[in-house]
Amino acid sequence: MKTQFLIFCTLFSFSAMSQINIKVSGNIFNASSDSVHIAQFYGTHYINHIGAKMNDDGTFHIKGKLDNPDYYVLRLNKGHVNLILRNESDIQVYGDGENLSQFVNIVNSDESDNMYRYVLKLNAWNAKSDSAMTVIKTDPSKKKEVNRIMGQEYQKFQGIHQAFISKNPGSAALYAALGSIDMNKDLAIYESIVKQLVDNFGDSPSIQALHKNFKKVKANRLANDNLAPGKIAPDFEELKTDRTSTMKLSDLRGQVVLLDFWASWCGPCRRENPTVVRLYEQYKDQGFTVMSVSLDKDKDKWLQAIERDKLSWPNHVSDLNGWASSAPKKYGVSGIPFTVLIDRDGKIIATKLRGMELTNELSRIFSN
Known about the structure:
Elements: E1 20-29, E2 35-41, E3 46-53, E4 59-66, E5 70-75, E6 80-85, E7 89-96, E8 104-107, H1 110-138, H2 143-167, H3 187-201, H4 205-223, E9 237-239, E10 246-248, E11 256-262, H5 267-283, E12 288-294, H6 299-308, E13 315-317, H7 326-330, E14 338-342, E15 348-351, H8 355-367
Parallel strand pairs: 1-7, 11-12, 12-13
Antiparallel strand pairs: 1-4, 2-3, 2-5, 5-6, 7-8, 9-10, 11-14, 14-15
Helix pairs in contact: 1-2, 3-4, 5-8
């Protein structure tokens, strides 16, 4: 997956709201430029704000006012350096004007420096990705080998990406990480970073625009997501273990229900069962129960697993059609274990809770 990072800015003005004073100075050798500017980059063009002359030895000093705290660039004739500027920022930038993409040191703004160093690694990954695509287009017979190598390289970059997020909590630098996150797959992580950016740099027009867009995207997604928190869990009816009687999910209305999709042949499911048993025993007298939907095909193995794992709740159902089973299809189950936690009114609280996450959520519910 190719990722991108682009400092983007809103195209409307907040100039009367939060004007800031800034200083940016330093030394850029090999600059081949007689001036530098604080600008904003819109992908295809720049808008300059304030600037200064560059001395023959590469030193410069920019001082002035900007309309808003935001993401800016220090612009030269050849290239630019991304900066995060706040009120009273006093940042020094030192670098090689012939290679600003590799040799820059940013002083007195850890968030700008951390963002710069992450973007270096992001750009390196993008370059490898572009090179791999060129090789495949030139010689399709190398596709398998190139994909194998790039799979390893992608895992390395993901390690860098995750480390950057974990080492920069609440930092405006996290803006650079958003382009490497698939919002459709990792909505919770994306939302967490957006929240941190709003909390830390909410007076930035770029973050305001990001937040506004994210809320629209999330609202549209949740409107089309049958398993979104707050929605009524889809009802279904299925055969119980005696193979003659049936039960519906809605029969459990009035209780907090863990809807648990599992199978006797599923190792992770079986390893998770002791946690579910412990939580059932802990909270069953307070209105908690479990409804287990098996993706088994073999009745005897299903029943043996229930007994061996001491799954003592009475709500065990299955049509014994494996992955073709109707209930998992209704819930879009593509891997197990898969859980849905449902409140007393039949509304979804959360999906995919396991282990400590499930323990913490039930503790929160039953401590109120």
